[in-house]
Every structure is written in C-alpha cells, then in structure tokens.
Write a structure and sequence with these properties.
single chain; mainly alpha; Transferase(Phosphotransferase), domain 1; two-stranded parallel sheet; 36 helices; 2 strands; disordered N terminus
C-alpha cells in the first residue's frame, strides 16, 4: 500500500547545524516541521522609546492634547511641547504625570499640573507664561511662537534688573537666554540627516559586506549577496528620506509638532540599531550568517513605518526618568543585536547576548522592555524545539505587555504563542484561543494590513495542523490577498505564503493549484537566494510530493532527487534534512514501482533519523511505515508487521486520537495484518482508519481508496462479502477520480470482483472486472499469478 500522505513536507533544516554558533536543536517529538519559518509580527520591537540619546525624554509627555487625538496640529502644538520642556528644565519634573499614555492624556486634558514645595521659587510671570503655553485649548495659548518668546524676553529683562537671589533664578535667566537665542538662530533647519545612518551603512561597510559574499564558498552567495546589498541600500535611502521628511515637516513646512518629529526620529534610531547590528554580524563572515542573510536583512524594520504617526503615538513608551531612559536606550541596542543574531541563524550568539542583557532588563522593572526580551527568548527556544519553555515565555510576555499598555507587543506574543502551540503539537485548541486574543487586539487597534495578514497566515497554519485544510486554504488566501496590498512586500514572506497555501491545497487534492504556488515560491527563492540555496530543499521537495500525489511519478523523481542533492551538499550525508529528502524520494520510487531503490532510501533515512531526531519521532514513524509497505510487498511479512506496529505506536503517542494523520498508520498496519492472515486484528484498525478519513473528508485521494480497500479485504477474509462491497465500490470510484499506480487499481478491483462473486450480487460484473485486469500489462509477476489463480477459480465455478 502506498503511503501517499503524511510525508515530511517542508522539513526544517535547523537540526543539521553544527555545535557552537548555529541553531542546532533537539526536536520535540511530533512537532510539525512544514512551517519551520514563522511570519512574525514583530522582531525587534516596533514600538518607540524616546530617550536622551534622541534629544528628549519621554516624548508623549511633551505632546499637545490635539496631537494625541489625531486632530489637525499647527505651531501652537509646538508651544505646548516647548513649555513642557521649559517646565521640566526649571522644576526638574514633567508638567503632567502618567505611567501610561491614557493616564497621561487624562491629566493633560484636565490641566492637572504636577506640584512641589519649591514651586514658589519660580517667578510668577514665568509660571504664567508656562501655564498659558500648556493650555489644553490651543486658542488659549499664545498666538505664535514669536509672541511667546517675546514674553520670555520681557521676563528676562525683569530678571536682569533684579538680584539673582537663588540658584533657581540663575537657572531661569540662563535658560531663557539660550531659548531666545535658539529661536532666533538662522541655521539650516534640516542639516546633514545622512550622518547617523552612515554609521550603520556607509560605502566602506558596504564594500566590506560585499567582500564577505565574494569570499564565501557557498554556491548561492552571489545571488544572496546581491539581494542583501540592494535591500541595505534601499533601507539607507528610505531612512534618509524619512529622516528628512520628519525634520522638514516640523522645521520647514511647520505642519508637524516637535513632539511628533521626535517620535519619528526615535523610531528611525531603532531602525538604525537593527541595521547596524545586522551589518556587524555579517562582517564576521560566518557561513551560517551568509546562508540566512536574506532573512536577516528582511527582518530589519522598514523606515517607512516611522512615518505611521498614529501608530507611533499609540505605542510610544513613556520614560520619565532620564537615567532610566538612558539605560533603556542601551538595552534596546543590545536587544537589536539579539534579534539580528536570531534572524541570521546564530542561535548561540543570540542566546548568549540575551542572557547577558536579561539581569539588567529585569532590574529596570520596565515592562515593555521585559516583554520584548521574553519574546526574544521564546524565539530562541522555538528554534531549538523547546516548545513548552517558549510557551511559558510567551504567556508571560503577553501579560507583561498588556499590563504595560503595549498592545502591539502583546499582539506579537499572542500570535507567536498560537504558532508555537500548533507547530509543537502542544495544543491546537489552545492555539486557536490565543488567535482570538490576537484578533481582538487587531480590532481594538485598527491594525495595519501587514499585521492582519500575519495573523491570517498563522491561523491557516493552526487550521492545517488541526486537519482543517479547507479552512486553512481560506486563511492563506486571505493572507496572500492582504500581503499583496502592502506597499512594501517582503519576497521571503511571499514565498512562505505560497508554500503554505500549496500544502493545504495538496491536502484537498487540488494538485494543479498547489503546483502553481510551489513553482511561484521556488521562483522567488531562486531569484532572491540563488538556485542552490538550502531554502529550496523544502519547497522543491514539496513540489516532488505534489507530483507523486498527482500520479506524475516520472516528473516527481527528478525534483525529489534535486532536494536530496541540495540537502546532502549543504548538510552532509548524515544530515537531518538529507534524511527527510531521502524519505520523500523513497516514497516516489515506491509509487513508481522501483521498490529496491525505494527500500534503500527508506533504510538510509531511518538510520539517520533515529540518531538526529530520536527513535520516537514522527519522521522515524514515516520511514518505518514506508519500509514496512515494501517488505510486505516483497513477502517479508514478519518484518513488515514489526515495522508497522512500531510506526503505529509512535503515531499514537504523537497525535491526538482523532487526528487524520493516524489513518495512514492504522491503514498500513491493517494491511500488514491482513497479509499475515490476522484479519480479526486488522478489522478494527481498518474501521478506525476509514472513520478518521470520513471525519476529515475532502476531495478523493489515493489514501482514501487504499483505506477502504483495507476495510473491504478484512471483511472478505472474515466471510462478510456483502459488507465488503460498499467500501470497495467507494474505493473504485475514488480511483476513477485520481491517478494512482497500476497495482492500486489492480488490488481494489480484484477485491471488488471477489466481493461481488462471493456475495452472489454481481457475478457477471465480477467476471468483467477480472477480464479488464487481465488486459493490463503493468502488473507485477506476483499480481499476475494471483489474477490467474482467480481466473481458474472462476472457470471452475462457471
């Protein structure tokens, strides 16, 4: 019987990494490897902490109330920001308190200024200027900035005419002088905005990175390097454009407040951290970083997101304490390095860097930073297959983010937690529950399309792993449509979407549609990463399996051989990915009738996987069941039954009782039992397999026909030919709709002819079926001998 489903599609390759600075991982038994590359909502944080390094502390604390609400702002909003800064410089505290943006906004709108005992040291005229500039109603402020500074100039004259009786008065006098000079200064409003980004991506650093790719021996280094250089150039150009726009909107066009400009600049600084961290890592020239460079550069946040003012305002982190703000800035730069190493595949580097940062992050008690750090650790643990530990981190990250008012960070944690629960086969129901959390946050935040698309993708992954392929297709198609509306489209996300959609289409036997998506994904990878990049192993292998399922075995074998050769060239003969590629090639060879080569591939894959994955991994079960099918066909029944029993035990330990993939192992074990003359033991397994298949009914497939043939054979052997007719008729009808191997048609029709004859309910049709089978020349010697014995039985009866 042909194991045409449940194969190891799109296996992750991370298990092949060597020790040290590479993402070697111990797989959790039963994890679903088809979705080894996740689409994360956030890598390094997309929220903004404004710190002294960016010129101010806690930008939202300086924003006029109209800037919070999204109303039109003018120069009077700058007065508010200016007076907030002036208030802080004089009093040593912010004018309005608030640990979160809603609390801060409430105090601003109420005009609830903070107070202290030394307020009386500030001259009444100056306090009056500040109170007017901080008025909630823009109309109540000064008519212009020039009017405000003129009022300060008059006040400065008062200060000059009096003795400076206190340190506070001295500060006031000095500060006002600086302010007026600054307002009157005739300097270019937006000078050299390119200077900061040059630290991350200059001509010299570009040449160094190009040299790394030129020196690499990886066959895909040329294409990957070209993509990385283009992407980094584009990031630099977009960064400069956004930095100039942020400045000119405030200083030249006067259509944006100083506070908004500072938010945008702070966001751009975080982008610069990320790019610099990636470039520093790449300059080392590690082969693993070269392999993952395209994914790592794609993970750097687009500078265009720093122009999304509503999002920046909603998610700015308020840090009132200058010392804390400086520490947060330092730790954010450290986290940028953690994320860069993670995306570059340098797991040991990423993990060590995070371990070094965590004590300092915990010491800040700053919730947003802690939530991001926990999510970073969860990503590292997911890369190692430590799903339970990742789950604990993500739950803690989610609730920490919510408590801190960080909806965007909470959304990233909920979305990733759903992925971890499903792919790790921990709890798909719980995964759907966390996706409900993610959807609720999306609705509350009026989230951008990219986030909606990412959640739709993960929902599709969870549904497919749950065996709900039709619903998964809907979600993947939604995600793809949403992705195609994005102004900036990451080709690697595009490839992932097409591959995931194709997997679900395959599960529904929509093979032609699936094949077009696989080929689209392959074209993207070859363009971006090169024709010999390891990323192709998964998708080329999937295309090969699609061709197997479609009955196009001759076309499938070259694709699967290509996947095997790519895996072997990248990870060696004993690599995990090599084993999976050999397993899938063996399945194609078996269906094509080359049982000897198929058995060699299965045996080689089994020897590798028992070492790399452990004896109880589902990939081991797949090798066992496929090898068992061949041994059954070769008449080695004792070995066949032993292999199938072990495979079924592994599957039951890894799958929920109602999971559709169990049907494969149940059916194959039933077949081995039947061939061994153990029909009574085979019947309940065959029934269970058909019931599972019916519960997840989709388009007819070879597996469905095979399972019903097993049931029919069991009933025949137990003397129930009438009951056998129905499943065998269904099997024959299914084979009429899909292209299966000749032997499958022979087995089903031979069994159906026997049921019709022995039941006495269609002996004429039984003879016709046998005559049709006799005319086929593709039968094996054993099958033809069996057919001839059947014909002799019929001749004698007639």
């Amino acid at each position: 019987r042909v194991a045409d489903f449940g194969l190891a599609r799109a296996v992750t390759r991370r298990t092949d990494a060597p020790e040290g600075d590479a993402p070697a991982r111990v797989e959790a038994a039963g994890n679903d490897e088809r979705y080894s590359e996740r689409w994360e909502l956030t890598g390094a944080s997309t929220v903004t902490t404004v710190t002294p390094q960016h010129g101010i502390v806690g930008t939202p604390a300086y924003m006029a109330p109209e800037a919070f609400t999204g109303a039109d702002v003018d120069a009077r909003a700058d007065q508010f920001s200016f007076c907030a800064s002036l208030f802080e410089a004089i009093h040593g505290r912010l004018p309005f308190a608030g640990k979160s943006i809603p609390e801060l906004l409430a105090n601003v709108e109420a005009g609830a200024l903070t107070t202290a005992d030394d307020d009386a040291d500030v001259p009444a005229w100056l306090r009056g200027v500040m109170i007017r500039g901080l008025a909630t109603d823009p109309a109540a402020r000064y008519p212009s900035m020039q009017a405000l500074t003129a009022e300060l100039e008059r006040g400065r004259g008062l200060v000059r005419r009096r003795l400076l009786t206190s340190l506070a008065a001295l500060v006031v006098a000095l500060l006002i002088g600086v302010v007026v000079l600054a307002v009157d200064e005739d300097a270019p409003p937006c000078g050299d905005v390119e200077a900061p980004i040059e630290q991350a991506w200059s001509a010299e650093r570009r040449a160094a990175v190009a040299g790394v790719f030129a020196a690499s021996k990886a066959p895909y280094a040329g294409e990957t390097g070209a993509y990385v250089l283009r992407a980094a150039d584009a990031l630099r150009d977009d960064w400069i454009a956004q930095r100039r726009d942020a400045c000119e909107a405030t200083r030249v066009q006067e259509i944006q407040s100083e506070a908004i400009m500072d938010l945008r600049v702070a966001c751009l600084e975080r982008v610069r951290y990320e790019l610099a961290a990636f470039v520093e890592l790449l300059e080392v020239g590690d082969p693993r970083t070269v392999e993952n460079a395209a994914a790592a550069i794609a993970a750097v946040k687009s500078p265009e997101r720093c122009g999304e003012i509503d999002r920046l305002m909603a998610h700015a982190r308020v840090v009132d304490d200058p010392a804390l703000a400086a520490e947060v800035a330092r730790l954010e730069q450290g986290l940028a390095r953690v994320w860069a190493a993670h995306y570059a595949g340098a797991v040991a580097t990423s993990s060590a860097a995070l371990d070094e940062l965590l004590p300092a992050i915990e010491a800040t008690s700053f919730g947003p930073l802690r939530a991001e750090a926990l999510r970073a650790r969860a990503n590292i643990r997911l890369g190692r297959g430590e799903y339970r530990d990742a789950q604990a981190d993500l739950e803690e990250a989610y609730f920490t983010a919510l408590a801190s008012g960080e909806d965007e960070e909470a959304l990233g944690s909920a979305h990733l937690l759903a992925y971890a629960l499903a792919v790790g086969r921990v709890d798909t129901d719980a995964a759907m529950g966390w996706l409900r959390h993610a959807r609720a946050l999306l609705e509350r935040r009026s989230s951008p399309t990219r986030e909606v698309a990412a959640v739709s993708y993960t929902e599709g992954v969870v549904l497919e792993i749950s065996g709900q392929s039709a619903q998964a297709v809907e979600r993947f198609e939604q995600a793809l449509a949403q992705f195609e509306r994005l102004p900036e489209r990451d080709p690697l996300v595009e490839q992932r979407l097409h591959n995931a959609l194709a997997i679900s289409l395959d599960a529904l036997a929509r093979f032609d549609e699936a094949r077009s998506h696989y080929r689209h994904a392959i074209a993207v990878i070859e363009e971006v990463r090169g024709r010999e990049h390891p990323e192709l192993i998964d998708v080329v292998g999937n295309l090969g399996l699609n061709l197997v399922d479609s009955g196009r075995h001759v076309e499938a074998i070259p694709q699967l051989e290509r996947a095997r050769d790519l895996a072997r060239a990248t990870y060696g003969a004993d690599g995990n990915a090599t084993a999976i590629a050999r397993l899938n090639l063996g399945a194609a060879l078996e269906v094509a009738g080359d049982e000897a080569r198929a058995a060699d591939e299965f045996a080689a894959a089994l020897a590798i996987l028992e070492v790399t994955q452990g004896p109880d991994h589902l990939d081991v079960a797949l090798c066992l069941t496929n090898l068992g099918l061949i041994r059954e066909s070769q008449g080695q029944l004792e070995e066949a039954l032993s292999l199938q029993r072990r495979a079924l035990a592994i599957a039951r330990a890894n799958y929920d009782a109602g999971h559709v993939e169990l049907a494969l192992y149940l059916g194959n074990t039933a077949s081995a039992l039947l061939s061994s003359g153990l029909a009574e033991e085979a019947l309940p397994l065959a029934r269970e397999a058909v019931d599972l298949d019916d519960a997840h009914a989709g388009a007819p497939r070879l597996k469905s026909a095979e399972l019903r043939d097993n049931l029919g054979r069991a009933l025949l052997e137990l003397g129930q030919p009438v009951a056998a007719i129905e499943p065998l008729e269904r099997a024959d009808a299914m084979l009429g709709e899909v292209s299966g191997p000749p032997r499958m048609h022979y087995m089903v029709r031979s069994d159906l002819a026997r049921a019709l004859w022995e039941s006495g309910r269609g002996r004429g049709r039984a003879v016709e079926l046998l005559e049709q089978l006799a005319a086929r020349h593709e039968l094996t010697v054993a099958d033809r001998g069996r057919l001839e014995r059947w014909q002799r039985t019929l001749d004698e009866a007639l």
